[in-house]
Amino acid sequence: MTPSAPGQAGSVRRLLQRVAATAVVLGLLVWVLRKAWLEARTIDWASMQVRPGLIAISVLLMVAALFWQGVLWVLMMRGLGYRLPMIA
Question: What's the rounded Cα separation, in Å, for the pair 54 and 42?
Answer without folding.
Answer: 22
